[in-house]
Design a protein that fits this description.
With 69 residues, this protein is an alpha+beta fold. The protein is built from 2 helices and 3 strands; from the N terminus they run H-E-E-E-H.
């Protein structure tokens, strides 16, 4: 995860964890893996229970969010 990047200020992230019924306090770690070929980022959330959830987000949406903050 990028230093200084706070998921709590990331509406796209919150929508995805709500959709998957994940509580923020249950998250052990978040991994962000860019895919330059498809201009996307694969987000993987690993919970303290060992459960892992993953989704892909368009890089343009993430970049726009970072510029707005």
């Amino acid at each position: 995860m990028t230093y200084g990047f706070c998921p709590e200020d990331w509406p796209l992230f919150h929508r995805q964890i709500e959709k998957r019924r994940i509580e923020v306090g249950d998250i052990e770690r978040v991994e962000m893996r860019p895919d330059s070929i498809h201009s996307s980022v694969t987000i993987t959330v690993i919970l303290r229970s060992g459960r892992a959830e993953s989704w892909t987000q368009d890089q343009v949406k993430i970049d726009a969010l970072q510029r707005d903050h």
